[in-house]
Amino acid sequence: MAHWEQRQDAVVSVLRQIDPDLVGFQEMETFAGAAYNPENRQMDTLAEAFPHYRFSATGDPARFPNTQPIMYHRGRLDPLGEGFFFFSPHPDTPYGDPWFGPYPAFATWARFGDLRSGETVLVFNVHIDRKRRRNRILSAELLASRVNEVRRPSDRVVVLGDFNALRWMRPVRIVERTSGLRTVADDGATFHFGRGIRLFPAIDHVLLGPRLTADGVRAVRSRPGGVWPSDHFPIVADVRPVPR
User: Fold this and answer.
1) In a 10 Å sphere around its CB, with 0-12 CB exposed, 13-18 middle and 19+ buried, how is residue 170 labelled?
2) Strand pairing category for 120-127 and 155-162
3) Rounded-to-integer distance, Cα 22 and Cα 123, Å
4) Which of 47, 68, 134, 241 is in the most buried spot, having the most CB atoms within 10 Å?
5) Is the pLDDT at 106 greater than 80, yes or no?
6) Following DSSP, what letter does each residue of 162-228 receive, concatenated?
């Protein structure tokens, strides 16, 4: 994948095209040869380009990982709380190794007040291990458990991110079955190898609780200036509340 300096204009262009209320990022990393880096050039660039947005579910990486933030429109959403957990036998320990293998993966979450409706929205932003099937299954079980633990009766729940699993595979089905969420219909391939290649169906998904609905997810396959913004196509869901 191209370096951030080569991709940043494309990312900004696509975000302006989408004009979202909320975005979940995964692997927003500024590598420094260590477990974490207090610098995050990607976040700094977007904060400057989009002053009407803020970032939640991020912080001082010594205490709260800063590579999987949730960006929100401050004119639409008001942050009410945030947290994280690692897909690990010790989920509340930052950068803990998974059950099998050395590469840490995790989820962040944030609760927002909707400034239009007054409702609360609870958002989980996930990135699940791509290498080991057993890690994916255990991660899905932990995710479903934490969704059930964190959510309140008044919350409308959204789970989004990179599951590294197709919609019909066990990790996605575990989250659906255990937490009562449903996966929004996808728009085909999301991972494209940084070349636009659509080799297999979507591995990035949006799941919604029973008080939210969406007609589907669309993949944004634009390439501003001939540059892919990511090796995944961004996916967009127009989410709306289910009337009481």
Assistant:
1) middle
2) parallel
3) 9
4) 68
5) yes
6) E-SS-TTSHHHHHHHHHH--EEPP--S--B-TTTT---S---EEEEE-TTEE-S-EEE----GGG--
- Give the model confidence (pLDDT) of 148-174 as tens digits: 999 999 999 999 999 999 999 999 999
Tokens representing residue 216 in the block:
């589907």
Grade residue 194 by pLDDT with cuts at 50, 70 and 90: very high
Find all residues with CB under 8 Å of 149, minimum gap 6, and list them: none
Burial of 52 (0-12, 13-18, 19+ CB in 10 A): exposed
Q: Which residues have C-beta within 8 Å of that of residue 9, sequence separation ≥ 6?
A: 224, 225, 227
Q: How many CB atoms are located within 10 Å of the residue 39 CB?
A: 13
Mean pLDDT, all residues of the chain: 95
Length of the chain: 244
Rounded CA-CA distance 209/198 in Å is 29
- Tokens at 84, concatenated: 């994280």
CA distance 166 to 201: 6
DSSP 242: P
DSSP letter (8 states) at residue 243:
P
Contacts of 46 (CB under 8 A, 6+ apart): 11, 12, 15, 53, 71
Instruction: Taking residues 29-43, report their average pLDDT.
Output: 82
